[in-house]
Every structure is written in C-alpha cells, then in structure tokens.
Design goal:
Pfam families: GFA (PF04828). With 146 residues, the chain is mostly beta strands. The chain has one domain: Metal Binding Protein, Guanine Nucleotide Exchange Factor, Chain A (Beta Complex). Helices cover 8% and strands 35% of the residues. It has two helices and ten strands. A five-stranded antiparallel β-sheet has the order 4-9-8-7-6, with no helix packed on it. A three-stranded antiparallel β-sheet has the order 1-2-5, with no helix packed on it. A two-stranded parallel sheet has the order 3-10. A hairpin with a 6-residue loop joins β7 and β8. The protein is globular. 32% of the residues are buried. The protein binds zinc ion.
C-alpha cells in the first residue's frame, strides 16, 4: 500500500496510465442492477486506486479510479441515476451519482467544465465486478486536510 499524498488535479494526473499501458474492459453495476456500465482501464492490480479521507469519500466508501468520460459507457439505467452535490471544499462543483433504488455510489465528476477533474469520471471501483478489493494498489489521499 502506498501512502503518497497529493492534492488537486495532481491526484487525477498521478493515477493515469502511460500511453503504452494496455486497457481492459471491466463490467460494473450498482447493487440492484438498475445501473450497469463498462469501464476501460488498466488491469487490477496495476491501476492505482485512490482512497481519500475527505467527508464524502469516507462516507460513501469510495475507492476511485479516474477515467476519461469516453472510457465509461452505460449499458442500462443512466436515466435513473440521481446526483448529489454539496457546498464545501469543491463549492458544489462535484456531482456524486448514485442509484436511487439501492443507494450505490457509482461515480463522481465535475459539473463545471473548467473545474477540477473535468473530462474524467471518478469511478467507484467497488462497483466493478472483476476486481479483488484486497489486491488493490491504494494511493492514500488526505482530502480531509484540503
Ligand atoms: Zn441500484
């Protein structure tokens, strides 16, 4: 487990694979199956996963990878998702999308095209079906101190 800490956009940049890293397609869904999708990313382990201690990450239990929007494809239920956002360090500019049926937190993303992480979805790795959560290479981020 890594204990490297970083802030802001460097969190996204530091998790991105090099151009030569092969990408694989992972199937994901919320708990009840209303929302299903695929995500292209490097294989696990090998893909750095962010574990952050800020209020929203710790409450949702997020384990996040940052993938360009085009690497995240809905196969069902996109229109069913609801979004939560709140004032605070991100000034309400980050949306947190979840399934209203089972409550699963699926992903977060900037709701402002010019803001932190725009162009990426922060995907909750806990929703990916082929990932062994015990094998992950975690990058610990001290979001609580931002
Ligand atoms: Zn659901």
């Amino acid at each position: 487990m890594s204990s490297t800490e970083s802030t802001g956009n460097t969190i996204v940049a530091s998790t991105q694979p090099t151009a030569s890293t092969p990408l694989t397609t992972h199937a994901g869904s919320c708990h009840c199956g209303t929302v299903t999708f695929t995500v292209r990313s490097p294989a696990f382990p090998g893909q750095v996963v962010v574990s952050c201690n800020c209020s929203i990450c710790s409450t949702h239990g997020y384990l996040l990878i940052y993938r360009p929007h085009e690497d995240f494809v809905f196969t069902a239920g996109e229109d069913r998702l609801r979004v939560y956002s709140f004032p605070g360090v991100h000034k309400g500019k980050i949306g947190h999308w979840f399934c209203p049926e089972c409550g699963t937190s699926v992903y977060a993303a900037s709701t402002d095209p010019g803001y932190h992480g725009a162009g990426f979805k922060a995907v909750n790795v806990r929703t990916l079906k082929d990932v062994d959560l015990r094998s992950l290479e975690l990058k610990l981020v001290d979001g609580r101190s931002l």
